[in-house]
Amino acid sequence: MKLQRIKLAFAVVLLATSWLASAANAPIELRLFAGGNTTRPDLLRKLLDDYEAKNPGVRIQISVGSATAELQRKYLTTLLNAKDSTYDAFILDITSPAQFAAAGWIEPLNKYVGDDAEQFFAEYLPVYRKANWFNNRLVALPAYSDAMFMYYRKDLLDQYGIAAPETWDELASAARTILSAKNDANLQGLSIQGAPIEGAVCTFLLPYWSQGSDVIDHNGQLNFNREHATKGLQLWRDLVAQGVIKKTVAEIKTGDTLNDFKAGKAIFAINWGFAWDRFQRDADSRVRNNIGVIRLPKMAGGEHASCIGGYQWAVSAFSRHKAESVALVRFLGSVEVSTHLALKGGLLPTRTALYRDEALNTQIPWLPSAEPVLLTAKSRPVTPRYAEVSNAVRSATSAVLGGSMSVTEGVNDIERRLTRILRSANPTGVVRP
To answer: Distance (Å, rounded) from C-alpha 423 to C-alpha 56?
Structure first.
């Protein structure tokens, strides 16, 4: 009996040793949240298969979520607020890193990348230095770029001998000339997003930035310029009154602008970078090969300014495999991945050198036109309270465009709400890029 117990104990030890050895040799499984369909998780899978082949100790699972950045942010916020470790790494809209870093939800990357941290951003479009650093710490790496672009009908401007506009006054004049000549009730001069969505934040900021103002200073404090806000909102109201912008602009969303321009129903349209691919390649596009892209017009005496977009890769502060996750997001932010996503998915690169890459320019002929816009692009207010800032700006902007608020009332409402939001901001929200 004693011998049997000894044999049994020995068998248990052998089994445990075997299990521990097997566990030690088992690959690490990393879980990646890759956003919605617009971030092209389908293209990532092939790249990740190659990554696994080169790193046999790692396996990667991809999860996808809602279509919009706002819903994705809410989903991740719910998980991370509970210190959930479901994901080791995730993709974030450009407005999110500051919020997530201030909450302690994403892992600072400096100690993993060392001296490379600063060197990384020598290669990127300058605006990403501001968006991906929080309190002097690198918290995310650019995945791909985007911005608000001014698209225009080259055929119509050529037909009437009109040069691409540099200022908003020139755009208004060009639009009125063509609308008068065409006399087409279905044609609009300029399509912008006026519904109370994220696009309306950029609608407010484009003319505001063009006058040299920002909403938040380098210390995260409110720096609101009432005069410039008033002039910017008045610009949009004037364009509505002149018939350049639809009277129903307060109902217009991103998809409406996309579809109107694609159907040939707008002379000018402001939309994100993904729209170019739709205009050029969709079977029902009526503007194929007639798409012009220029910098956003500037206010008289002002400067060109666009609204930066795009996504960033971050590592969860609750990941059990942080070093491996950092290695993964460094790969996902690499030149190799950026080039693949540009060629196969039309997602704009974040590195300036790729805009002069001959192979990319051959396959994506609008890249040379995109770069000047991206170089003028600015980051929406970098603050942990961005969601509240966004709600304040978008709702008032939409109300002014729709006529339910006067310009003065809209400016007062934005200033009042921003003052309250940023006054009550946590001190950890100070941003020093």
So the answer is: 50
Place of tokens 């079977």: 283
d(CA 151, CA 265): 13
- What are the angstrom distances between the C-alpha of 330 and each of 41, 135, 260? 17, 21, 39
Same domain assignment for residues 64 and 125: yes
Closest of 314, 315, 311 to residue 341, by C-alpha: 311
Q: What is the DSSP letter of 351?
A: B
For residue 390, the tally of other CB atoms under 10 A from its CB is 19
> What are the pLDDT digits (tens) for 303-334?
999 999 999 999 999 999 999 999 999 999 99
The verdict on 315 and 258 lying in the same domain is no
The 10s digit of each residue's pLDDT in 270-284 is 999 989 989 998 999
Q: Which residue has the higher pLDDT, 73 or 188?
A: 188
Cα radius of gyration rounded to whole Å, the chain: 25
- The set of residues, in sequence order, having a beta carbon less than 8 Å from that of 19 and lying 6+ positions away, is none
Report how far residue 243's alpha carbon sits from residue 12's, in angstroms, rounded to the nearest whole number. 83
3-state secondary structure at position 62: strand
3-state secondary structure of 79: helix
Same domain, 300 and 158: yes
Tokens read off for 355:
């805009």
- Is 158 in the same domain as 295? yes
Closest CA to 150 of 265, 378, 306: 306
Please report, for the domain that includes residue 199, its CATH number. 3.40.190.10
| Whole-number Å distance between alpha carbons of 77 and 272 | 25
Distance separating the N- and C-terminal Cα atoms of the chain = 73
